[in-house]
Amino acid sequence: MSEPKRVHPISMFIDFISDAVSMIKNFIIPFFVLIFVNSNSSIRFYAFIILGVLLLWKAVSTVLAWRRFTYRMEDDEFRVESGVITKKKKYISLERIQTVNTSEGIFQRIFGLVRVQIETAGGTDGPEVSLTAITKAEAEQLKQSIFNRKKSLQQEEMIDENLDFPDSLTAQQPVEKEISVSYRMGIPELLLAATTSSGIGVIISGCLAIYTQIDEILPLDGFLKRFSFLSHASVEIYAILIFIAVLIAWILSVGVTALQYANFTAKRKGKDIIITRGLIERHQMTIPLARIQAVKIKENILREPFGFATVMLVSAGGSITEKETSSVLFPLIRKKKINELLTQFTDQYQLAPESELKKVPKRSLKRYLISYGFVPLLVGIILSVRFPPWGYLALIPLPFALFFGYLAYKQSGYVIKDQLIQLTTRGIGKTTGIVLRKRMQNYTMTQSYFQKKGRVASIHTFVKSSALLDSFGVHHLEEEDAERVCDWYSYETNQST
Question: Side by side, which strands form the sheet with 77-82?
Answer without folding.
Answer: 70-74, 77-82, 88-93
